[in-house]
UniProtKB/TrEMBL annotation:
This is Oxidoreductase. Coiled coil: none annotated. InterPro entries: Gfo/Idh/MocA-like_OxRdtase_N, Gfo/Idh/MocA_oxidrdct_glycsds, GFO_IDH_MocA-like_dom, NAD(P)-bd_dom_sf. GO terms for molecular function: nucleotide binding; oxidoreductase activity. It holds the Pfam family GFO_IDH_MocA_C3. Keywords: Oxidoreductase. Residues 8-110 form the Gfo/Idh/MocA-like oxidoreductase N-terminal domain. Gene3D superfamilies: Dihydrodipicolinate Reductase, domain 2, NAD(P)-binding Rossmann-like Domain. Residues 134-243 form the GFO/IDH/MocA-like oxidoreductase domain.
């Protein structure tokens, strides 16, 4: 692909998701990965080399080299690095969750404008679902069931440390499920009720279930399961049909309205997120990123208090 070079991209944190970002950015006309930093210089060097970029020492060097900075680092570091990047006047894409606490989200919100990496909205089947919903009448029941192999043996240790991860599966993938429910049902969360499961030897939850009470009166029931088997299905029963979203597409009453290649679609969702940023189209806002983090904390408080709804 011969690319025009309108925007220079820098990545801080060259771990798992950074490879996805770099692969997606390589497909975007007008975007060029120029700099990669990581606390571990070898990791930065490997990713930079793969994409013809420069491995640099840290955020300051990335800020000097790039117009758009992606922060794909462990959750607790999002706030500090985002504040520095926003302060330097760069476009910033902070990976989800926006931060580990609502207070940190509020400080980031006060600092200025940036994007939150809730790229799940850019799956073609989720976009198709939003269009189908317009035709199906009032959503009567929303349920999502998804897994992640939270305790997989090669999971980096910080995911088990509440001081760094801010929580467990709800912080890691629950924010995606919350964002999807709010985006499809059209309102932010008002309250959350739920349960979390913290297995022996763990300090964070590895499975959770939550009911979101949205500001427009709609509800969403989410189940997050720690499992080596991957599943992810959203079902929305509406007045005039039942919509399902899964990794391979979107269906109405069992009829496929859109089929996608699940693996490819994941990287494509990152590409579409970059394209939206370049065009100035909507990407998850800091307020929406904060809503998801606040909902996770409301879930934790509800679970600790016996499962009663807690205002987020
Ligand atoms: N949007 C998505 O679908 C998606 C998917 C996976 C991960 N993520 C998010 O991306 C972020 C990173 O997750 P990951 O799975 O890539 O983690 P990871 O552990 O694989 O990678 C994190 C990298 O950051 C580096 N690092 C740690 N602290 C640093 C610091 N202060 N400065 C510079 N580098 C530092 C580590 O050395 C590591 O290479 C998390 O916020 C995670 O929730 C998002």
């Amino acid at each position: 692909m011969v690319k025009s070079e309108r925007m220079r991209l820098g990545i801080v944190g060259a771990g798992e998701v950074a490879w996805r970002h770099a692969a997606a950015a390589a497909e975007v006309d007008g975007l060029t990965l120029v700099a990669v930093a990581d606390r571990d210089p070898l990791r930065a060097a490997r990713l930079a080399q793969r994409h013809g970029a420069r491995a640099v020492a840290g955020l300051d060097e990335v800020l000097a080299a790039a117009d758009l900075v992606v922060l794909s680092i462990p959750h607790v570091y999002h706030e500090e690095l985002a504040l520095r990047a926003i302060g330097a006047g760069r476009l910033v894409l902070v990976e989800k969750p926006m931060a580990t606490t609502v207070e940190a989200c509020d400080r980031m919100l006060a600092a200025g404008c940036f994007h939150v990496g809730q790229q799940g909205r850019f799956f073609a089947q989720v976009r198709a679902a939003r269009e189908e919903l317009d035709r199906l009448g009032e959503p009567l029941l929303y349920t999502e069931r998804r897994s992640t192999d939270y305790r997989r043996p090669d999971r980096p240790a910080w995911f088990a440390d509440p001081a760094v991860a801010g929580g467990g599966i709800a912080m890691l993938v629950g924010v995606h499920s919350i964002d999807r429910a709010c985006w499809l049902l059209g309102a932010p969360p008002r309250a959350v009720a739920g349960t979390v499961a913290v297995p022996d030897g763990w300090a964070v939850e590895t499975s959770a279930a939550a009911t979101l009470y949205l500001a427009n009166g709609r509800r969403a029931h989410l189940t997050l399961v720690d499992s080596p088997e991957f599943f992810h299905e959203t079902t929305i029963v509406c007045e005039r049909g039942t919509l399902t979203i899964d990794p391979a597409g979107c269906s109405v009453d069992g009829r496929r309205v859109l089929a996608v290649d699940g693996d490819q679609e994941y990287t494509t969702s990152f590409r579409r997120q970059y394209e939206a940023i370049l065009r100035g189209d909507p990407v998850a806002t800091p307020a929406e990123g904060r809503d998801a983090v606040a909902a996770v904390h409301a879930l934790y408080r509800s679970a600790a208090a016996g499962g009663e709804p807690v205002v987020g």
